[in-house]
Design brief:
The complex is a heterodimer of chains A (about 300) and B (about 300). Chain A contains 16 helices and 2 strands. Chain A is mainly alpha-helical and about 300 residues long. The chains are: A mainly alpha (about 300), B mainly alpha (about 300). The interface between A and B is large, with 98 and 96 residues.
């Protein structure tokens, strides 16, 4: 009772506020309706992961049957491993590069050169993976630029797109091509925010350029690096669906098939809806756990959440 | 943001030269593959067989490949479908995102935290492809443009960006309008949106690039080929290189034009057609995307 009296003094009662804001609720209604239908109805729909689909009558609840099938299937095991391997390769061989690029760009003194450079290297980010896959298949075809160069220098033609030992590296390299520029933006901004006085003082103290990089720039941008790293970790299970989907082919499928492409294939192409939903849900839940735990980690390390 | 760095090393140095060389090579690596596609697309039919990755200047320069590609029904229909989906998609996106952002910046709205939580949950958990597909089927939207126009009609990331812009509009203006008898909808469309043009431009470009590049949901929801947007057509012709589509395209081209055009040139021309609109809007895209990225809400 006491609480209600206090509320009366400061703000109007809940009923009155809702009535006062009735137009606002009406405006918000279509937006909420969209989220309910487009996001929450599918979440309820995902229950078929625990059901057998019946074409007549009610679906039958079968508990974890599809998960037992999934986890005992060598195909799914391979798909899961592929996802982990491809994501790990990207973290190891792609993640540090935008940081290095930001350092290099920071060394450029000419404003015009910097601006031009930045507009050029951001461009690939805006192309669809369909287009990028088209460009890379041309570049890496047996008669494409890369193989022309290899044969020019006396090497053997490499069938990159259909070679099991090369295709995952094609993913890494095309990811670099698409994102090295765009992903350097945050680091460039972080480096730019460092006051010049710090460097001036270091120069007075006789610090070499390398020492300036390792003793000043790197420690200051480290929180940004950690935040971006943690954020990337949250999307670990995606492994870049659009990229893999547009670059994969039958010759390399065993090396590149990831969870998302597997869901598409066994679900929409083979009609094994329950198993596909089970796999998709498994990936969604791992993703959720990763995001929530990385958010915790981020709060601990930098005092700031992921969002 | 211009950082005047006069750290006493204005003289030309070896590390400086190496850094510039590395950066120029990176930039070339970005541009050259695109330029090479343009060269191949412009090369005349007599020379196309020799044109490869190392050709710098197109021989027998001609626009006939572009003409042939654009007269291919799949392609011009695809272009039309993309424009149609993008136009209607953008209207839905902007209206819904503005409505949501306008209401959700009101901190004292009863239930606001519940609504925000419901929206943020959708950012971190998705039910997956198959339930999405079944929803479309159950709504009777399969093979209808509405399926892809409404897909991701409100992107929570963009909603939050627009909320920041709306939050920057002075409260006093809104109060003044309210005293003048403006209703909420009028305040949104007459005050909020005109005063947040940069915000509207930002989300329009975000959604625009999304629609232009979207292919996967279109591919699975739009079952009849005549409804396919350009990216799906490109995927079929360029990426998956399905035999039937390949031969179909070649037959059409060879019977429709005097000279046979190599599939290589056709592919290159398609890729260029998909890139041109991005280049046309690129100055705007750069300006608003970079600030959007720096505002810290964009994961991709």
């Amino acid at each position: 009772m006491r609480r209600r009296d206090e509320m009366h003094k400061s703000t109007p009662s809940l009923k009155k506020r809702i009535y006062r804001d009735r137009h606002l609720y009406l405006m918000l209604f279509p937006v909420l309706l969209f989220f309910l239908i487009w996001h929450y109805v599918p979440m309820w729909g995902a229950r078929i992961a625990f059901q057998d689909i019946r074409f007549f009558g009610e679906n039958e609840w079968v508990g974890l049957k599809h998960y037992r099938l999934l986890f005992s299937s060598p195909v799914f095991l391979r798909v899961f491993l592929n996802t982990v391997v491809i994501s790990t390769m990207k973290i190891l061989f792609f993640f540090p590069l935008p940081i290095a690029l930001a350092f290099l760009i920071h060394e450029v003194k000419s404003h015009a050169f910097r601006k031009t450079l930045q507009s050029v290297i951001y461009l690939p980010h805006f192309l669809s993976w369909v287009v990028i896959a088209g460009i890379f298949t041309t570049l890496l075809s047996p008669t494409g630029l890369v193989n022309s160069l290899i044969t020019f220098f006396g090497g053997e033609v490499i069938p990159f797109m259909t070679s099991n030992s090369h295709i995952r590296w094609v993913f890494v390299v095309s990811e670099i091509w698409r994102s090295i520029g765009w992903d350097s933006i945050l680091y460039i901004a972080a480096i730019n925010s460092i006051p010049n006085e710090l460097y001036d003082a270091a120069i007075v103290d006789g610090a070499s350029r390398m020492q300036q990089v390792f003793r000043i720039t790197l420690p200051i941008i480290l929180p940004t690096v950690i935040t971006v790293f943690i954020l990337n970790l949250g999307f670990f299970m995606n492994a870049g669906f659009d990229q893999v989907f547009n670059m994969m082919n039958d010759a390399v499928i065993n090396h590149v098939d990831i969870i998302d492409t597997y869901v598409y294939r066994i679900g929409l192409q083979k009609g094994n809806f329950s198993l596909a939903t089970a796999a998709g849900l498994f990936k969604g839940i791992i993703g959720l756990i990763l995001i929530l735990s990385t958010d915790r980690l981020s709060r601990k390390i930098s005092g700031e959440g992921v969002w | 943001m211009v950082n005047m760095r006069n750290r006493g090393r204005s003289q030309v140095s070896l590390p400086g030269i190496i850094i510039h060389l590395v950066l120029v090579s990176v930039a070339l690596a970005m541009v050259y593959p695109l330029y090479n596609q343009l060269v191949i697309a412009l090369t005349g039919s007599d020379y196309i067989a020799q044109a490869d990755g190392m050709t710098l200047i197109p021989k027998g320069i001609t626009l006939s490949t572009f003409k042939a590609v654009l007269s291919f029904p799949k392609v011009y229909r695809g272009l039309f479908n993309t424009l149609f989906i993008t136009a209607f998609g953008l209207i839905v996106n902007i209206v819904l995102t503005s409505l949501g952002a306008y209401v959700l910046i009101k901190k004292d709205l009863a239930g606001r935290n519940v609504f925000m939580t419901l929206i943020i949950i959708t950012m971190i958990f998705e039910a997956g492809l198959i339930p999405d597909y079944f929803l479309m089927r159950d709504l009777g939207l399969l093979d209808r443009y509405a399926s892809v126009i409404l897909y991701k009609a409100v992107n929570p990331y963009y909603l939050i960006i627009l909320m920041r812009f709306f939050g920057g509009v002075p409260k006093s203006l809104i109060e003044a309008a309210r005293i003048d008898g403006y209703g909420e909808v009028r305040i949104l469309f007459r005050i909020m949106i005109p005063l947040s043009i940069a915000g509207i431009a930002t989300i329009t470009l975000f959604y625009g690039v999304f629609h232009w590049n979207e292919y996967f949901r279109s591919m699975i929801y739009l079952t009849s080929e005549v409804k396919w947007p350009l990216q799906v057509v490109i995927r079929e012709l360029v990426v998956s290189q399905e035999k039937a589509a390949f031969i179909g395209a070649l037959n059409f081209i060879t019977s429709g034009t005097a000279a046979a055009i190599e599939f290589k040139a056709l592919k290159a021309a398609l890729i260029i057609i998909a890139i041109v609109p991005i280049l046309l809007f690129y100055p705007l895209v750069l300006r608003y995307f970079v600030s959007g990225k720096l505002s810290g809400s964009i994961k991709e």
